[in-house]
Amino acid sequence: MRIRRLGFTLIELLVVIAIIAILIALLLPAVQQAREAARRSQCKNNMKQIGLALHNYHDTHKKFPPSRIEMGQTGQNMIDPGTHRRQLNHTGWAMLLPFMEQGNMYNQMDFSQASSWSHVYGAYSASTVAGNPERNWPIVSQRLSVLLCPTDSANDYNYTSTNKYYSVSATRPGGARTNYDFNCHYLDYYYQGYTMLHTPSAERPMFAGNWSTDIAAVRDGTSNTAMVTETIREVWNGVPPAWGHGGHVQVGVDLTFMPINNWVYGWIQPDPQYLHMRKVGRLAQWATAGSLHTGGCQVLLADGSVHFVSENVDTGVRNRLHRMADGEPLGHQF
Question: What secondary structure does DSSP assign to 177-218, as a single string?
Fold first, then answer.
């Protein structure tokens, strides 16, 4: 009597494995898209929380916080004996902590002590810093999830260098980074208060160093003006912004500076000689907008709404979105 053994032949097994592999290959992109949709939704929710915090701050103080406070920039006469000003390198994010459910961190900050010793071009020495920035290091070194886009998987991009441009002190590197920053004029990197002192009112964004605006100044309408824009924690030139302290070129985001998601280095436009160094996820310049969401980045408007702006948006629309009182209709063409 013959005993029939049940089972798969080798060919049948290989066919089943091939079918499973095909199904996985078909499903994987859908799973990845679903995960990215969730991350993008969380990023949008982060920015909505920021918008709510900014408006609650405005309700309390009748104005928005400055983007940065007493930065060690060349154009600022920091050591004028008549003013006794000293570098603080504080940020508007630190002032916003109580409105982002971080009151304990805010209470631990000592705003009479600098947040970093950053100074630029040799105009100042570390002796011009207010107090000791080591005092605030335990705070500015902490990551804040509400200021981090979950799609950006880069580390804090926290330089180990303790140079005078980006570090907290001679023994501490730069603090924790942020994926969101205030809409500012990029020339604040050289002359703090550039927006208020040297820019026509029609070209001003909502934020600047040592300068606070209120909602009434947003003459183009709160639904037509960018307040906070997304950026990336890796850049080709300069460094990404830190949430807890200022530093050279860590001034905010300027939508008029360069196109969104510009991956090729160039001062204003991509430079062909650097095309071989193109890397998606590494922005060309500091103070520029971008994200790892495909096709553009998120922008928080002054009315608290969050919109995804295409990387192919018209330059004129991008400029008008950045400025709060240019009188030009936006048309929501983004």
Answer: B-SEEEB--GGGGTSTTHHHHHS-GGG--S-BTTB---GGG-
Residue of 163, 296, 165 whose CA lies nearest to 231: 296
- Per the confidence metrics, is the pTM higher than 0.90? no
Residue 72's pLDDT band (cuts 50, 70, 90): confident
Q: Is 153 exposed, middle or buried (0-12, 13-18, 19+ CB in 10 A)?
A: exposed
Indicate the residue type of 291.
S
Q: Which residues of 233-269 are buried (b: 16+ CB within 10 A; e: fewer)?
A: bbbbebbbbbbbbbbbbbbbbbbbbbbbbbbbbbeee
Closest CA to 183 of 88, 89, 47: 47
Q: How high is the mean pLDDT of the chain?
A: 86
Mean pLDDT of 177-191: 91
Find residue 283's DSSP bridge partners. 235
Question: Whole-angstrom Cα distance, residue 311 to residue 189?
Answer: 24
DSSP labels for 97-155? GGGGT-HHHHHH--TTS-S-----TTSS-GGGBSS-GGGGHHHHTS--GGGS-TT----
How many Cβ atoms sit within 10 Å of the Cβ of residue 175?
A: 27
- Answer left, alpha or beta for residue 106, where phi above 0 means left and psi between -120 and 50 means alpha: alpha
Q: Which structure tokens are listed for 194? A: 């550039």
β 68-69/90-91 pair status: antiparallel
Q: Is 269 helix (H, G, I), strand (E, B) or coil?
A: coil
Token look-up 């709160």 returns 222
**What's the chain's length in residues?**
334
Cα separation of 86 and 294, whole Å? 42
Which H or E element spans position 40?
helix 10-61
Q: Which two tokens stand for residue 288?
A: 């520029």
